[in-house]
């Protein structure tokens, strides 16, 4: 374990011992798989690794994000980066298409990466105005991020 990882671990333990809060293992809610330990070890240096739980990206998207986030971390090896991307791509890949005329708000959040408020707006609009026929119909909903819908275009089914 390198010095920065050791200091981060000690710092977290110290915070919990001073506050009296029980230390919780962030890895507990992540799926098991090859590369999980490396992912948790490296990514928890800067943020809670469970931040990925609602993300559903392709391997190319995960690779770009990992590269972006680790550009200032020269101590992370190429093998560790590869293991992190492989873990994320295997466990947090895009979901298959979602029918926006039948899905619940929770399903829209998981499949399209929308906020809960945006997904609820879609469901409410659908109930009030009938089924959607095109992506442009969805983009007209107030409070829904049109760019997010465009990014998820290949997973939207009518």
Low-pLDDT sequence parts: 6-24
Structural class: mainly alpha
Major sheet: 2 strands, parallel
Strand content: under 5%
Number of strands: 2
* Span between termini: 50 Å
Order of strands across the main sheet: 1-2
What's the overall average pLDDT, rounded? 85
- Rg over CA atoms, rounded to whole Å, is 19 Å
Helicity range: 40-55%
**What is the N-to-C succession of helices and strands?**
HHHHEHHHHE
- Count the DSSP helices: 8
**Overall geometric form:** elongated
Comma- or semicolon-separated keywords:
158 residues; mainly alpha; two-stranded parallel ribbon; 8 helices; 53% helix
Description:
This protein has 158 residues and is mostly helical. It is 53% helix and 3% strand. The chain has 8 helices and 2 strands. It has a two-stranded parallel ribbon with strand order 1-2.
Indicate the topology:
Blueprint: H1 3-19, H2 36-43, H3 59-69, H4 78-91, E1 98-99, H5 105-112, H6 116-129, H7 135-139, H8 146-151, E2 156-157
Helix pairs in contact: 2-4, 3-4, 5-6
């Amino acid at each position: 374990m390198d010095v920065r990882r050791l200091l981060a671990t000690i710092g977290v333990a110290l915070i919990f011992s001073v506050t009296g809060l029980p230390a919780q293992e962030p890895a507990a809610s992540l799926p098991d798989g090859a590369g999980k330990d490396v992912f948790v070890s490296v990514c928890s240096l800067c943020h809670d690794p469970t931040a990925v739980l609602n993300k559903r990206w392709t391997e190319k998207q995960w690779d770009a994000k990992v590269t972006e986030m680790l550009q200032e971390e020269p101590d992370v090896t190429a093998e560790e980066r590869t293991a992190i991307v492989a873990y994320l791509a295997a466990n947090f890949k895009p979901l298959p298409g979602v029918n926006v005329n039948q899905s619940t708000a929770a399903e829209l959040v998981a499949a399209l990466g929308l906020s809960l408020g945006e997904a609820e707006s879609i469901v409410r609009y659908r109930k009030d105005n009938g089924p959607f026929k095109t992506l442009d119909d969805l983009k007209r909903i107030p409070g829904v991020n049109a760019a997010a819908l465009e990014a998820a275009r290949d997973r939207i089914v009518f």
